[in-house]
From TrEMBL:
It is found in: Cytoplasm. Participates in both transcription termination and antitermination. One of its GO terms (molecular function) is RNA binding. Residues 202-279 form the Transcription factor NusA first KH domain. Belongs to the NusA family. This is Transcription termination/antitermination protein NusA.
Amino acid sequence: MENIALIESFSEFKDDKLIDRVTLMAILEDVFRNALKKKYGSDDNFDIIINPDKGDMEIWRNRVVVADGEVEDPNQEISLTEARKIEPDFEVDEDVSEEVKLIQLGRRAILALRQNLISKIHEHDNTNLYKQFKDIIGDIYTAEVHHVRPKAVILVDDEGNEIVLPKEKQIPADFFRKGDNVRGIIESVELKGNKPQIIMSRTSETFLEKLFEQEIPEVFDGLITVKKVVRIPGEKAKVAVDSYDDRIDPVGACVGMKGSRIHGIVRELGNENIDVINYTTNTQLFITRALSPAKISSIKIDEENKRAEVFLKLEEVSKAIGRGGHNIKLAGFLTGYELDVIREGNLVEDEDVELTEFTDEIDSWIIEEFAKIGLDTARSILSQDIQDLVRRTDLEEETVAEVMRILKEEFEE
């Protein structure tokens, strides 16, 4: 009876942990054999019969009958008198099989046995969990916010597995509450002790690439290929796409009518600005496309040093550099070239004035704001529209207008 009760409690693990019957039987047998070794010194002469589905188990000890007084190994041998207590017709040299009840192992041994079983099942679970998530590294995964901590968000999936989304793997605009569903890619699985730690990322380039696969049918079907993705998470991204079918416009297919297809991806990434670019093996053309929306006058390429001098008209410089320098930085990452902007135009050097010359009249932090978008001379600012400058910087309209007034006075003088 004790055997049945114990196995019934053990078989609960099968349902809770979704362990298959064969695996559970192997774990149970291993645990019981360890207990028998501790009690009897060896388990070689024991047969263990387990049926976790029915919730029963039998342990049989096999010994050889020897004459009274000649027992040398009580675990392997049994005296004739003791054997005849089991069956009265036993003779010397015959084999005796005797059932061992778990209660004979002792209460302490049974408690240890149960703890050993729990440990083995956890070990089995952790190994399976590690393998399961190792196989989906780089894939999109969805889980629910369980707990928000200062340095990480703890997520839980439908199976109760814990997933960590570290602060540095979150998009700056991300804000999560308990119960929110979060999408990201499984970036890594690390063993912390015996327990796997699953790391999710929303800042990886792979996440954006997988979102394209998920949201754009032609990418999923392989008609359009994502050649390269570069990102400044939450700010801006550039995605180079190509198609082997000349009838397909890869950029148009990815963006959709009025941005309908890419809108969901942009929203998922906290309104990250995404430029989709036609890939080409023509370096000059690829750099030109990568620096969009700026219009390039000409490009001088140094293949050996992977550098390129990009010549632009004055009014195009700020567009090429972009807010915070993001556009030119990402264009460089995308093309693999270090890009140097060269201003060109009819103005000679002494017809323009560096913005740093106006520090007596314009605060240095305002000058820095303009420098972030590639405007570091008086004429480069005067060639811009006030509303456009307000949109591209963190400056108020009144501040921009005042700067414009100061700079105009310089040239009117």
